[in-house]
Amino acid sequence: MMYSERFSNLPAHVWPRLRALLDGHEGGGTPIHMTIGEPKHAFPAWVTDEITKHAEGFNKYPPNDGSPELRGAIAAWIDRRYGVEMDPDSEVMALNGTREGLYNAVIALCPPTKNGEKSAILMPNPFYQVYMIGAISGAAEPIMVPATAETGHLPDFASLPEEVLRRTTAAYLCSPANPQGVVASRDYWAELIALAEKYDFLIFADECYSEIYRDTPPTGALEVVKELGTDRNRVVIFHSLSKRSNLPGLRSGFAASGPETMREIKQLRNYAGAPLPLPLQQAAAAVWADEAHVEETRALYQEKYAIADRIFGNVPGYASPEAGFFLWLPVEDDEAAALKLWRETGVRVLPGSYLAQNVAGTNPGQNYIRVALVAPKDETTRGLEAIRDCLYST
Number of C-alpha atoms within 13 angstroms, CB side, residue 243? Predict the structure, then answer.
C-alpha cells in the first residue's frame, strides 16, 4: 500500500465540511462564531515583554527537547498541580503544541503489530481527529469506542472484545472531554490503568482542558499512577498553554512520562521535531510559572457556565459541563440544526457528527451540536439565547 492510500478514504476534515454546509447560505444576522475552540480571553500582557527581552535567542537554534528553563518550569507546574515530581531532563519534553505529540505518540511508541496481529489504537467516539490520523500513520487500526450519555460520555474500553484488547498498543483519552465536558474520575483512571496493565498497552492522556473547570480541579492520569504505584512509563500526559493561558498561537505544549517512554518520544523528535524558537520558550517558561492569569480566565468561564445553565436548564437532555469550554447540546438532526441556526440567527455552531465516525451504522455525535464558549461574556450570551430561541422554543 502506498503511504498516501492510508488516507484516501478518510471523511472530509471538520472545517471544510462546515464551510460546505453553511457558506452557500446567507446568515440571518451579525455572525457569532461558536464553532472553533480558539480562546478569545486576553493572554497575559507581559508575554510580549518576555519575548522581546529574549529576542537575541532568534539568532540560535533552539534545544530540541526544550530549554532547561522551560522544562524546569513545566516539571514544577506538574508538581504543584498534581503532586507528582518529574525529572525535567529525562521525563519532560516541550512540544510545538500538543497536536504534535498526540500525533507522533503512536509512531514513536506503538509497533504496527502485536501478538502477530495488526495493532489496535483505542479512542473515544466523538474524538479529536489527530488521534485517528496518528493511529493510521503508525500503521495501526483506530478503534472508536462510543462515548455517549449511556456511558457517561466516556468510553467503556473494558467492554471491548478480548481479541481487540489483546492487540491494543495504546488508548487515547481526553479528560476533561472535548466535546462533552465530562471529567474522568479517579476510579475511571484507576480502572483504565488496570486494564492497560492487564493487556500491556499505553495510555495517552490528553489533558489540555485541565485548567478550565467549575470548582474541583480534574484528576490527572499521572496523579493516579502515583497513588497506585504503577510504572509511570505506562502513561503519557499531554498539556499546553493554548487553553490554560489563552495562547494557542504560542504553540507551547509538553509531553511527560517515565524516562523509558520519553526516550523513545525524544528519539523520534530528534529527526522530525520542530522546536519552538528560544524567545518563545523563555516566554512559555514564565507563563507556566504563573497562576494568577489562569485563575482570572477560569473565573470568566465559570460565569459563562452559569449563563449556559440559566439559558438551557429547562432543555431536555441538557448536561451542564463539568469542565472545558464547550456545550454538547442535544438536537434531532445536527446538520439541519446548524444550518437553521446560521440562516435564521447568524450563529455558527459545529454539527456533532463531524467530530465522530460512523461505527456499525451509528454516529454518536449525530444528535448533538458543539458550541464553544470562548467569546466574551456578552457575545456568548447573545449566541446562547439565539440558539435557545431558534432550536428549543415551543
Answer: 25
**What pLDDT was estimated at residue 274?**
86
Whole-angstrom Cα Rg for the chain: 21
d(CA 76, CA 141): 36
Q: By CB neighbour count within 10 A (0-12 exposed, 13-18 middle, 19+ buried), where does 290 fall?
A: middle
Number of continuous H segments (helices) and E segments (strands) in the chain: 14, 14
CA–CA distance, 354 with 293 (Å, rounded to integer): 33
Neighbours of 136 (CB within 10 A): 16
Q: What is the pLDDT of residue 134?
A: 96
pLDDT, residue 254, reads 98
Q: CA-to-CA distance for 258 and 225, rounded, in angstroms?
A: 11
68-82 helix and 278-288 helix, angle to the nearest 10 degrees = 20
Prediction pTM value: 0.96
Q: What is the b/e burial string over 92-114, where b = at least 16 CB atoms within 10 angstroms of the residue's CB?
A: bbbbbbbbbbbbbbbbbbbeeeb
- The DSSP result for 236-286, as a single string, is EEEEEHHHHSS-GGG-EEEEE--HHHHHHHHHHHHHH--PPPHHHHHHHHH
pLDDT of residue 7: 65
Distance CA 200, CA 195 (A): 8
Distance CA(347)–CA(340), nearest Å, equals 9
